[in-house]
Specification:
The protein is an alpha+beta fold and 514 residues long. 25% of the residues lie in helices and 21% in strands. The protein contains eleven helices and 24 strands. The strands form three sheets. Strands 12, 13, 14, 15, 16, 17, 18, 19, 20, 21, 22, 23 and 24 form a 13-stranded mixed beta sheet that branches. A hairpin with a 2-residue loop joins strand 15 and strand 16. It starts with 9 loop residues before the first strand and ends with a helix.
């Protein structure tokens, strides 16, 4: 795990062709730190990790400073067998400012003669461009009430963008005609069931930072009221909120994730490989509800459920809703025994994503595939990544056939369809308006046995699916296996400033100052 002050240079080789010239070549990397030395903890820490035999994954190969102050370089002798292959590498350096810890793997073809790669400036490490493969960024916050959390929340909300600048005029406050009275009634009933102390911990202002304080990590301390803290009547009222907000499919998916958390707890108790303190943080009932604002026909409000592998942010303005960010996942993804035996999670998301990728021809796959190896985690937009810069990558949907576009729409509907069906139709109309400006990208293989990552990205929706490495379910006496099929993370976002309904809220407050 990478700390908030340490990162590394990572060099990885992927074999994409086989040429065997007679002479070895020298490939030189060069980095300019001259304008950013005040942000660097140790300029001499700049280096490279990589795959043996050229490099070691355990010990970084140091880059050396040149006579020019702040310029560092490293020359590697490349064996003949690697000439012509695609080289994927990642620039990062030990820094004192967390926001400079960014992952952006670049791609070059190893030349037939010695060459020097273009000089890279430190401030360009995090720049988003189409020739980068973005691994999952470091986790910014691990626990609440920490300097790291404070710093993250002080960063003004911008939203997911392709270049740090939100596109304008994408969202408008409208009257949808969709009934939301049943949802208001469900939330009112839940609020009325709370004791004074429970209200204090559960009710927040509409512009509260509580919206952004969600996390997948089990040891992040949640606010709100946990299911395990509720009596039976309160639990039913909490589930009524989910029923009134989600489709039948979305509600069942949420229940299945909760059941999977209970099953995970049983498995880790049997394995006895983690502490009791951590085991106690797992379970089917370790999910917390908070309410932002007061349910109203005209004023903005919303609710949030937050826990390990299930986070839903649900903003309401009149009869208009925004249900992002939504994080869903599970480890494992199948229950083999017990009262919930047979439950499987994320089968459709996995199957439909793979079907779309398999439908691509050779040229389309070349455009869509960022990397044909899935050895790392790739989700960009998980907890505390509200302002992540994510470039459009992969294949633009305008290059897909009619049939392939239908497969893409069906895949998007699998995620959007977790919300109440009438609101899902409204969102899908918005998605289809930007369909030809949508991009699909892929990492990994193309068989049912392969692990993979895919991203669907447009001005109005971002969907990520990632097979993760196991966190709990692996033999500690063996090396970590890397990404596995049984651990899945998915994220849905509304890019360009409307996660948490913030753009709609801004428009409302401009017209109706409070």
């Amino acid at each position: 795990m990478i700390s908030n002050k340490v990162s590394v240079f990572l060099l990885m080789f992927g074999v994409f062709s086989c040429t065997t010239p007679e002479n070895k070549v020298l490939l030189t990397f060069q980095v300019d730190l001259s304008k950013s030395l005040d942000e660097v903890l140790d300029p001499n820490s700049i280096g490279i990790l990589g795959i043996p035999p050229l490099l070691s994954m355990q010990e970084r190969t140091r880059m050396q400073s040149t006579e020019q102050d702040g310029i560092y370089n490293l020359s590697l002798e490349i064996p003949d067998s690697l000439i012509g292959e695609r080289l994927v590498f990642l620039y990062v350096v030990d820094t004192s400012r967390f926001e400079n810890l960014r992952y952006g793997a670049r791609v070059v073809k190893i030349p037939e003669i010695s060459d020097t790669l273009p000089l890279v400036h430190f401030n360009e490490f995090g720049d988003a461009s189409g020739d980068q493969i973005l691994l999952s960024p470091p986790i910014k916050v691990f626990r609440t009430n920490t300097p790291e959390e404070k710093s993250a929340l002080e960063d003004p909300f911008v939203g997911i963008t392709i270049d740090g600048k939100p596109m304008q005029n994408l969202y408008a406050t409208i009257i949808t005609g969709v009934e939301t009275q049943s949802l208001r009634d469900a939330v009112d009933s839940f609020i009325n069931s709370l004791t004074p102390d429970q209200r204090k911990n559960t009710l927040f202002e509409i512009e509260s930072d509580e919206w952004r304080k969600w996390h997948n990590i089990e040891w992040y301390e949640r606010q709100g009221l946990g299911l395990f803290e509720m009596n039976d009547d309160q639990k039913q009222l909490a589930f009524n909120i989910l029923k009134a907000s989600l489709s039948a499919k979305g509600f069942q998916k949420s229940k299945n994730i909760m059941a999977m958390e209970g099953y995970l707890k049983q498995l880790v108790i049997k394995e006895q490989q983690i502490s009791q303190e951590r085991i106690d943080l797992l379970g089917h009932d370790k999910f917390y509800f908070t309410i932002m604002g007061i349910p109203s026909e005209s004023e903005p409000w919303g609710w949030q459920i937050d826990g390990h592998h299930l986070v839903i942010n649900y903003f309401v303005l009149g009869d208009q809703v925004v249900m992002t960010p939504t994080f869903m996942g599970s480890e494992p993804n199948y229950i083999e025994e017990g009262p919930d035996a047979g439950v499987r999670t994320f089968y459709e998301e996995e199957k439909k994503g793979l079907t779309l990728y398999q439908s691509l021809d050779v040229d389309q796959k070349e455009k869509a595939t960022l990397w044909d190896k899935k050895e790392y985690q790739f989700n960009q937009s998980e907890a505390f990544q509200d302002n992540q810069v994510i470039p459009y990558q992969g294949i633009k949907v305008s290059f897909l056939s009619v049939e392939q576009k239908e497969l893409l729409i069906a895949l998007i509907e699998e995620y959007v369809g977790d919300i109440k069906s009438e609101h899902a139709e409204i969102k899908m109309t918005e998605v289809k308006q930007h369909l030809d400006d949508t991009w699909f990208s892929w990492v990994g293989g193309d068989t049912e046995d392969d692990v993979f990552y895919y991203r669907i990205h447009s001005p109005v929706i971002l969907i990520e699916f990632d097979h993760h490495g196991p966190t709990f379910l692996w033999d500690r006496n063996k090396p970590h296996p890397g990404p596995v099929k049984w651990h899945v993370h998915t994220v849905v976002r509304t890019p360009n400033g409307n996660d948490y309904g913030k753009d709609l809220l801004r428009q409302h407050l401009e017209r109706h100052p409070h």
